[in-house]
C-alpha cells in the first residue's frame, strides 16, 4: 500500500430542509388552520481516528465528501427527517487544518476520537411557527440554511516517543530491528527506507515506548536533495531525538560535517513550519563500533565531541550486533518516565464553535397564488365563519359600561315573567 501522509479534501455539510406552507383540510372542519411542518437539520461531517489505518491513501483520489441534506417539512405538522451524518476515517496522529484560514480544526491523538469539521444547515420553519392571535392563517415559511463548506488539509504525524535522525545507511533501520519487532527493509545502499516505520520497544513487561524511523536526511534536503524534508513532520510529536552517527560513512565523508548538515536542515524546517523540533533533546549515538578497535573508537569519538563542542548525552553501539542497545533503551525509558508526555497531546481537542447561519429570509407566498389554489377554502370558510359570528363586547367596552344595554334587556324579561305569575 502506498504511504500517503498529506492530502487536501473538501467537505460539505448537508443543507437544512425547507419549511412549508400548508393548511389543514378535513371535511366538516372549517378553517383548519396552518399545519406546515419544519424541515430537518442537515447532516454534519466528522473525521474519526482509526488505529487500524496508517496512511491517508483513501483520500488520494476521492477529494470531495458531502453529507445528506435534511428533508423538507410536510403537512399535518410533520417535521422533515434529519440529514445522515458523514463519518470519515483517518489514522491516529492526523492533524486537520482549514486551508483558507490556517486554523487547526482538530488533532486526532487517540483511537475513536471524532472531530466535527463541517456543521449541517439549520432547518427551515413551517407556517405553523408564524401563527398568532392576529395572524390565524400565516402564509410564511423559511428556507433551511446551507451546510458549512470547508477545504481541509490532512497531515499525518506519527505518534512516537523517540525519533531517529541520521544520514542514509547510518543504521537507523538496523537499530529499530534490533530493539523492536518491526522489520523495516535493510540493505547496503542509501535510501533503503522510503517511508516512516514505527517500532514498539518493550523494556519490561509493563514499560514500553514507540520509536519512529524516518528516511535519511542529507545536507540540502530543504532545497529538495534526497527525499527532501517532508518526513521531518513525523518527528513533531516525539520527546527525544536519537541522532545516529556512522563512525565509518560509506562515502568516507566527515561525520562532524554530516552531523552539522542534518541539524541545519532540522532548524530550517522548524523555522519554516513554526514547530519546536530544534528545542527537543538530542542524544548522540555512535554506531558501527564493531568495525573499529576499541582504541580507534575512543579516539574518533573524543575527536568528534571536541569538534562539535558537545555536552549532551553520548552513546555508542553496534546495532547489527545488538551491543549497547539495551543501555540506550533503559535510559530512554527512565527519561520518559521522568518527563511525562506533554499535556497538549494528551488533552482532548477543544470543541470548535460553529455558529448557525442566519435563517433565510421569510418567503411570503403571493396572494394571487393562494387565491388560485384555495378559492374554495377561502370563500366557503369565510361564508361559514361569518354566519352566527357574534363577537361579544370588547374588554375595553365592558370597562366603560357600554354593555349595559344587554343587562337592561335581561332585567325587563325577568319583570315580565313575575307579572304573568301575579295574574289570576
TrEMBL record:
Residues 160-337 form the OBG-type G domain. Residues 1-159 form the Obg domain. Residues 367-417 have a biased composition (Acidic residues). It is an enzyme of class 3 (hydrolase). Its cofactor is Mg(2+). Mg(2+) binds at residues 173, 193. Keywords: Cytoplasm, GTP-binding, Hydrolase, Magnesium, Metal-binding, Nucleotide-binding. GO terms for molecular function: GTP binding; GTPase activity; magnesium ion binding; ribosome binding. The keyword Nucleotide-binding applies. It is found in: Cytoplasm. Pfam families: GTP1_OBG, MMR_HSR1. Monomer. An essential GTPase which binds GTP, GDP and possibly (p)ppGpp with moderate affinity, with high nucleotide exchange rates and a fairly low GTP hydrolysis rate. Plays a role in control of the cell cycle, stress response, ribosome biogenesis and in those bacteria that undergo differentiation, in morphogenesis control. PANTHER family: DEVELOPMENTALLY REGULATED GTP-BINDING PROTEIN-RELATED, MITOCHONDRIAL RIBOSOME-ASSOCIATED GTPASE 2. This is GTPase Obg. It comes from Kangiella koreensis (strain DSM 16069 / JCM 12317 / KCTC 12182 / SW-125).
Amino acid at each position: 500500500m502506498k504511504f500517503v501522509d498529506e492530502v487536501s479534501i473538501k467537505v460539505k455539510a448537508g443543507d437544512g430542509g425547507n419549511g412549508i406552507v400548508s393548511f389543514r383540510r378535513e371535511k366538516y372542519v372549517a378553517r383548519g388552520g396552518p399545519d406546515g411542518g419544519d424541515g430537518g437539520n442537515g447532516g454534519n461531517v466528522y473525521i474519526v481516528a482509526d488505529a487500524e489505518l496508517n496512511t491517508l491513501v483513501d483520500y488520494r483520489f476521492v477529494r470531495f465528501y458531502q453529507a445528506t441534506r435534511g428533508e423538507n417539512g410536510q403537512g399535518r405538522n410533520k417535521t422533515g427527517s434529519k440529514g445522515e451524518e458523514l463519518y470519515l476515517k483517518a489514522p491516529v496522529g492526523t492533524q486537520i487544518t482549514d486551508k483558507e484560514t490556517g486554523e487547526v480544526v482538530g488533532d486526532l491523538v487517540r483511537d475513536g476520537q471524532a472531530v466535527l469539521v463541517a456543521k449541517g444547515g439549520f432547518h427551515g420553519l413551517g407556517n405553523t411557527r408564524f401563527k398568532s392571535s392576529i395572524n390565524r392563517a400565516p402564509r410564511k415559511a423559511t428556507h433551511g440554511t446551507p451546510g458549512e463548506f470547508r477545504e481541509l488539509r490532512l497531515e499525518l504525524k506519527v505518534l512516537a516517543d523517540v525519533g531517529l535522525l541520521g544520514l542514509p545507511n547510518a543504521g537507523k533501520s538496523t537499530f529499530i530491528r534490533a530493539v523492536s519487532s518491526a522489520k523495516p527493509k535493510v540493505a547496503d545502499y542509501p535510501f533503503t527506507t522510503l517511508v516512516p516505520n514505527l517500532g514498539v520497544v518493550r523494556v519490561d513487561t509493563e514499560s514500553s515506548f514507540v520509536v519512529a524511523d524516518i528516511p535519511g536526511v542529507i545536507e540540502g534536503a530543504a532545497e529538495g536533495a534526497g527525499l527532501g524534508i517532508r518526513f521531518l513532520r513525523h518527528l513533531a510529536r516525539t520527546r527525544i531525538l536519537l541522532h545516529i552517527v556512522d563512525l565509518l560513512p560509506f562515502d568516507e565523508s566527515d561525520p562532524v560535517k554530516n552531523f552539522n548538515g542534518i541539524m541545519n536542515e532540522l532548524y530550517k524546517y522548524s523555522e519554516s513550519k513554526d514547530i519546536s523540533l530544534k528545542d527537543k533533546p538530542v542524544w548522540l549515538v555512535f554506531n558501527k563500533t564493531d568495525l573499529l578497535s576499541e582504541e580507534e573508537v575512543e579516539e574518533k569519538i573524543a575527536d568528534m565531541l571536541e569538534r562539535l563542542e558537545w555536552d549532551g548525552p553520548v552513546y555508542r553501539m553496534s546495532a547489527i550486533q545488538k551491543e549497547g542497545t539495551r543501555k540506550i533503551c533503559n535510559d530512554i525509558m527512565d527519561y520518559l518516565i521522568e518527563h511525562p508526555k506533554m499535556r497538549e497531546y494528551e488533552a482532548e481537542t477543544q470543541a470548535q464553535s460553529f455558529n448557525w447561519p442566519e435563517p433565510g429570509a421569510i418567503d411570503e407566498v403571493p396572494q394571487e397564488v393562494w387565491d388560485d389554489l384555495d378559492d374554495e377554502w377561502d370563500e366557503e370558510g369565510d361564508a361559514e365563519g361569518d354566519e352566527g359570528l357574534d363577537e361579544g363586547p370588547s374588554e375595553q367596552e365592558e370597562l366603560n359600561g357600554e354593555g349595559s344595554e344587554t343587562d337592561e334587556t335581561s332585567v325587563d324579561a325577568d319583570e315580565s315573567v313575575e307579572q304573568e305569575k301575579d295574574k289570576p
